[in-house]
Structure to design on (333 residues):
């Protein structure tokens, strides 16, 4: 009886420990395996940018913001580098700028000489459709338009290559 | 063009007109949605950029964009629970401020109830014990043994 009372606190503490240790950013996205939500935005150059137009290609969809330092600054060269390496193999990188000012976003694109299509999500609809709750977040979409992986945090060369090579290795059609 | 052909053409045109009108009617008429209704849905959702606030209470741009989406869906005639589900489908149950009352998170709801019940049970058991002990111990007159008696006698005799 003496030890029963302190012992009863153990399951409560265990539950709290579990709850506080789980990082919501690492919770699995319910979207993996599902069709990627279509969107139609305008690039910074004013060109139309629609996900549907990329069907048949492997799409690397990256959500970023100019205020997202240092992760977005670290991954920008990685994305540009790999876009150049893979663009001829049926891979497209798309950048979606969220919760940002157009001036700062343009400067970011300029500073990193990003040549892959980048667009602003002005209404937040694309972010919500992809369940984005921070930047950077990157989605790897297969040729059939399904979300196959979600990466939270800066993309490294290895993350990019591993995911893209996996999707490229799949049979087309 | 025969009369029959004309009649057929007219019927076809009518059919198309009816179909178009029906299509327009099928698009849910936008209903009036009050600020309170938007708030009620938004209050159930966690602000994604500031985890301790609800979408209803957060001043962030993301939250206001989410409120706009909530309003739009309600105006299109979607019931509130479907609007909440729309966000759960995209963010997972993490977006809900109140954990769902099923599965693992049922523990969170059950724990306080279990704790209160256990506390009441413990109090009841302890109370029962104390009252039993008090009843079990009758007030016996204090026993003064011979040695004590002798000591008192001596103390009184050797007075000041």
């Amino acid at each position: 009886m003496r030890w029963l009372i302190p012992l009863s606190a153990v399951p409560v503490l265990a539950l709290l420990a579990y709850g506080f240790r789980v990082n919501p950013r690492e919770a699995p996205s319910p979207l993996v395996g599902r069709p990627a939500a279509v969107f139609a935005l305008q690039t910074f150059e004013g060109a139309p940018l629609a996900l549907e137009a990329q069907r048949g290609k492997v799409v690397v969809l990256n959500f970023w913001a100019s205020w997202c330092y240092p992760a977005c600054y670290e991954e920008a060269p990685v994305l540009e580098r790999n876009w150049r390496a893979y663009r001829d193999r049926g891979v497209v990188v798309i950048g979606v700028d969220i919760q940002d000012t157009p001036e700062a976003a343009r400067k970011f694109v300029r500073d990193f000489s990003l040549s892959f299509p980048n667009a602003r999500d002005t209404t937040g609809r694309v972010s919500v459709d992809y369940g984005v709750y921070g930047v950077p977040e990157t989605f790897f979409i297969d040729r059939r338009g399904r979300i196959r992986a979600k990466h939270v945090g800066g993309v490294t060369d290895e993350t990019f290559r591993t995911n893209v090579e996996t999707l490229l290795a799949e049979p087309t059609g | 063009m025969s009369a029959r052909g004309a009649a057929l053409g007219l019927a076809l045109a009518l059919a198309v007109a009816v179909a178009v009108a029906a299509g327009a009617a099928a698009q849910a008429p936008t209903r009036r949605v009050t600020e309170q209704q938007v708030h009620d849905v938004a209050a159930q959702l966690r602000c994604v950029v500031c985890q301790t606030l609800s979408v209803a209470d957060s001043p962030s741009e993301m939250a206001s964009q989410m409120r706009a989406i909530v309003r739009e869906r309600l105006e299109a005639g979607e019931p509130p629970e479907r609007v909440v589900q729309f966000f759960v489908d995209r963010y997972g149950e993490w977006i809900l401020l109140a954990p769902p009352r099923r599965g693992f998170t049922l523990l969170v709801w059950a724990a306080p109830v279990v704790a209160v019940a256990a506390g009441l049970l413990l109090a009841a058991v302890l109370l029962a014990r104390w009252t039993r002990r008090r009843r079990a111990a009758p007030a016996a007159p204090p026993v003064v043994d011979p040695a004590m008696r002798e000591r008192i006698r001596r103390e009184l005799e050797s007075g000041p």
Summary: Chain B has six helices and no strands. Helices of chain B lie at 3-26, 35-42, 61-75, 80-91, 106-136, 146-157. The CA atoms of residues 20 and 41 of chain B lie 34 Å apart. The mean pLDDT of chain B is 82.
